[in-house]
Each structure stands twice: as C-alpha cells, then as structure tokens.
Design goal:
Number of helices: 9
Order of helices and strands: EEEHEEEHEHEEEHHHHEHEH
Bound molecules: zinc ion
Strand content: 15-25%
Structural class: alpha/beta
Radius of gyration: 19 Å
Length: 310
C-alpha cells in the first residue's frame, strides 16, 4: 500500500464555480475555498483563478504534495485537449500543460464524474467495494468506474459515459425520444438527468419545475408530480439494468442534485430486477456520502490513485 502524502490538494473546476480543498492523510479537509469561475473572461483567466486558489490554500497549510483537478468533459487521448467542458472557454486547450505551467509542477486532470466515483469508492458510500459505478444525475449525467480502488480509463477517455446510450426497452410513447445535449436523440441523459426529469414533467402538462420542486410536490400528494417521479425512476431502472448486466458492480453510487430524491433508492432496484439476468440482484444502489464535496475529494485523491490504463 503506497504511503498517503500529508497534503493532497483537489480542485473541482465547474462552469460556475471553482472549489479547492486540501486533505490530510485521514481524508479530513484542512483548508477549503470556493471562487466563481471567470468563464466569461476566457481560458487564461480561469487558469489564473485556479493558480490563485492553490496559492491561497498553500499559504494557509503549506505546499501540497500533489494536485489533482476534476472538470466536466474529457481529455482527448491523442492530443491532450479538453472536450465537452461546460466551462467552454477551456475546450480545445491542453489544460494539464496549462495548469502544470501555472503551478510549476505536475498536475493530474480527470473528468469530474471520475473524481466523484473515486471519492465515493475510497472513503464514501462505496468504501470497501470492489467494483463501483458512480453516476451523477444533475444538469447532465456523468459516470465513472473504479475497480479495486483504481479509476478505469480507456483509449478514448470516455469510460462510464452511459448517459449517451439510448434509453433501453423504450415504449412506443417514448419514441423517437427527446433531443440530447450531445446532438443525438433518446439518450439516457435526456430522460433521467435533472434536466430530463424537468422536461418530462413539462411535456406531461406540468409546470416548469426542477427535480427538487417536483419531489416536494410529489411528497405533498400532487398526482402529476408523483407520476413524473415514477416514470423517472422506472426509466433509470432500465438504464442501470444494462449497466449491471455489463459490469455487475457491487455498488452504484448516485450523486448530483437528483441524488436527494429518497424514493429513488427503493423504486429503482425494484424496477431493475426484471431486466437484470441475475436473481437475486446483489448490486446495491447508494446515495453519495460526501455529496457536493465528492468532486473536490476525488480530485485530491487522483494523483495517488494511478489510472489503470496508464
Ligand atoms: Zn446524448
């Protein structure tokens, strides 16, 4: 077992905010700070904001032994350029090199859903599990795979991108399906993300509400909101059944805004049983333990946890 460095610094770089934290060997946060992402000011301003955040954290607790950065999108394996990030000014840049130059040291960069999964597999809801699939249900759907404590990465940098498979076993009413952010149609993301749930509720004739508001109305007895949640959970059950059939994970950990929906943890496993070829199904569905902090925690763990593909 490799020794855990005294100070691991993680950065969660999102489209609207940048979070930084330094973790001690026990995984406790010893310093943390959050700043808005100056996305409108361009790529150089974002790199400078990250460098400033790192400098302030290190002024408080000392120089970090390793720095990891998690961000939406993925690094193209051939040329190292970022793609599909919601801080769009970073797309097309070799951000690993940019951050290494700004910070004067090596920096490990990974997808934010990968960081989330690594965090939950290390000391979160999936601690001790061998095969972990992490999903983020928020604006979009992210995913990551950790096996034996290590992130799984492949030649295309897209491991775990389950959200852009089509929704399986569609009913006639579900075809041709809503348009997805990726330009395809009927993707899982377009149905089961927070955005997808809100859009489905509106298509059914309900008011334009976010997932949390739909859950509140369902809890208050609103039949339309209850029906929307029920459709959402049944679709998520179908979508995850194909993941279980492929990967047979010990745990599927759920993060993002919709992870707050209590009904999900009973209804989805009840719904996936008929689609999974094992009986009984031993895969557990669990809510993330570290919530929003999982991104920054996983980023801090990155440098210590070598990617299995590299
Ligand atoms: Zn898609």
């Amino acid at each position: 077992v490799p020794e855990i460095p005294p100070r691991r610094l993680g950065i969660d770089l999102g489209g609207s905010k940048i979070e930084g934290a330094v973790l001690d060997p026990a995984g406790r946060v010893v310093a943390a700070e959050r700043v808005p992402t100056p996305a409108a000011d361009g790529h150089a301003a974002v790199v400078a904001a990250v460098a400033g955040l790192v400098a302030r954290l290190e002024a408080r607790v000392g120089r970090a032994d390793c720095v990891g950065i998690g961000t939406p999108g993925s690094i193209a394996p051939d040329d190292g350029r970022l793609r599909n990030c919601n801080a769009a000014c970073l797309n097309g840049h070799r951000i690993s090199d940019d951050f290494a130059a700004a910070l004067g040291r090596d920096v490990t960069v990974a997808n934010d859903a990968d960081c989330f999964t690594l965090s939950e597999a290390t000391d979160g809801a999936a601690a001790g599990a061998r095969i972990v699939f992490g999903i983020i249900l928020g604006t979009g759907t992210g995913g990551g795979v950790v096996v034996d404590g290590r992130l799984v990465g492949g030649p295309d940098g897209i491991t775990g991108e389950w959200g852009h498979n089509p929704l399986p076993w569609p009913t006639p009413e579900e075809l041709p399906g809503p348009e997805c952010s990726c330009g395809r149609r009927a993707c899982i993301e377009a149905w089961v993300s927070g955005t997808g749930l809100a859009a489905d509720h509106a298509r059914d004739g309900g008011p334009r509400l976010d997932g949390r508001e739909i859950a509140l109305r369902a809890a208050a007895g609103d039949p339309r909101a209850r029906a929307s949640l029920e459709r959402h959970h049944e679709r998520l059950a179908r979508a995850l059944a194909t993941v279980v059939n492929l990967l047979d994970p010990d745990v599927i950990v759920v993060g993002g805004g919709l992870s707050a929906l209590d009904s999900l943890y009973a209804r989805v496993p009840a719904g996936w049983r008929r689609h999974i070829v094992a009986d009984p199904v031993r895969t557990r569905l669990a809510r993330a333990r570290h919530g929003d902090a999982s991104g920054v925690r996983g980023a801090a763990f990155l440098a210590a946890a070598r990617r299995s593909a590299s």
